Every structure is written in structure tokens, then in C-alpha cells.
Amino acid sequence: MSAERVPRGIDPTRAHPARRYDYWLGGKDNFAADRESAEILASGFPTIRLAALENRKFLQRAVRHLTAEVGIRQFLDVGAGLPSAGNVHEIAQGIAPESRVVYVDNDPIVLVHARALLNSSPQGATAYVDADLREPEKILDSPELSRTLDLSRPTALILVATMHFITEAEDAHGLLNRLRETLAPGSYIALTHATLDYLSPERRAEVVEADEKSGVRFQMRSREEFARFFEGLDLVEPGITSIVDWRPDVPPEQRPSVEDVSMLGAVARVP
Ligand SMILES: C[S@@+](CC[C@H](N)C(=O)[O-])C[C@H]1O[C@@H](n2cnc3c(N)ncnc32)[C@H](O)[C@@H]1O
């Protein structure tokens, strides 16, 4: 996107997570500052693009599982990101056209492009809420949410590659719990998260340095810290794994290494 085509309300001079992720996925809705930040991070973690693509594949496998095998028909996708191939409603409605999806993101660029997330099947519904996960009440009280989802019925809360933008100081676990306590029994939570767990101490140091230089605030979490998001929930098989090993649809020899992807994923049921 060229500087002269900057939409109103967008700051192109500072890297933003949604636009940087769009760059890694091969999208066009990013600016020089996003690409620069992306390349700085890639200098410490060269397989970041692969990690982004694998994350997207996890999202799609999780939504497919929840729709086709569990029977979920409502989705709340927080940190939805810019529209990309295989958005949640496209996957879910491809299986069950009556599926209803609410997308949430706090990045103004996602709001600019949200129309592409709203092309629901006639039998289902989609909505977009411009809100910040750090203000869960704004999400929960939004008219778009109450018009689209009935939270007294099972709903899948999706936070895929989102929680690592929330620090401990911002009470990441408390924020997730606030959303989770509104979910009906039989609801699900699907999460992925960046981790340093799979890397050697030398490689960890390189990633941390590049991450700090990249200008986007980020919080890596260990498997133990990630597991705390699921306390009191029933993990779906195979539990907490590298995203590449979570209900994979390709044999092991075709999957990237857990080091190159360095993301944890899991899906759990609210009892
Ligand atoms: C790496 S992208 C992931 C997009 C999508 N979930 C996926 O996995 O393909 C992270 C998204 O989370 C959003 N995000 C980060 N912090 C957020 C916050 N506090 N509230 C809402 N969205 C947030 C970013 O704007 C970005 O679109």
C-alpha cells in the first residue's frame, strides 16, 4: 500500500501487529514501517513467515473440527486480523451455512477492511466489533455481539495468535477469564501462542533481541504459562502441542519442525 493511499485514522509510521502479520501472509495491507519491523524480527527468527502460515492452518483446522465434529455454530474471534484466505466464517459456513461469527480487533486497519469479513452466507451471520481485548466489557456489551450471538448457547471463543500481544502487567489471564465466564457450558476456547520453549538458549537470545528491536510489544509464554489459560477447562485431544502437531492433516514428514514454528496451540471445552 503506498503512502498516498493511507486510509483515514491509520498511522503508517509505526508497525502494527495486524499489518505485519498481513505482510508475512503475503497480503498487501501493510506499510514500510510494518515491513521493516517484520524483517527485523525475521533477522532473529528467519522462519516467522512459515510460523504465520502454520498458525493460519491451525485456525482453519480448529474451526473445521469445532464445526464439523463438535457441532459449534457460534464463534467469537478476538484478534481476527485482516481478512485473509479462509476466514473463520468461510470455514464454518462452508460446513454449516447457518454459522454465526463475530470478529473483534482493535486495529483501525482491520476496521477499514472489515467488509470482507461480513460477506456471510444468507443462512448465517457475521459482525465486526472494533474493540480492544483489554476492555472485555466493550466487546461483551456491543450491540453487534448481542445481535449476532446468543451466549447462552455454546460458542467458540477464538484467540489465535492474539494473547501474546497482552502482557502479564495487563492481566492476560484475567482478561481471558472475563470472556470465558460469559460462555455457556459446552462452549470452547481455541488459542495459539508464540513460545521460546522449543529453541536453544542461543536461539532464544536472538529472537528476544530481534523482538525487542522490532517495535511491536510482544509477550512470549512457556508451555506452563500457556497452560494456565486452560485451567478448569477440558482440553480436547491431543491437548497442548506445537500447532503443527494439533490434529494435523498431513503426515509428520510433511510438517515443519516445532522449532521453526515455535507456537503452542490447544482447544478446550468449557464444562
Ligand atoms: C497475529 S494477528 C492474528 C490474526 C488471526 N487471529 C489469525 O490467527 O490469522 C493478531 C491480531 O490480534 C490483534 N490484536 C492485538 N492486540 C489486540 C487487542 N488488545 N485487542 C484486540 N485485538 C488485538 C491485532 O490487531 C492482529 O490483528
From TrEMBL:
Q: Which InterPro entries match?
A: SAM-dependent_MTases_sf (IPR029063), SAM_dep_MeTrfase_SAV2177_type (IPR006764)
Keyword match Magnesium: no
One GO biological process term is:
methylation
GO MF term set: methyltransferase activity
Q: Is-annotated flag, keyword Transport?
A: no
| Swiss-Prot/TrEMBL keywords | Methyltransferase, Transferase
Q: Could you identify this protein by its name?
A: SAM-dependent methyltransferase
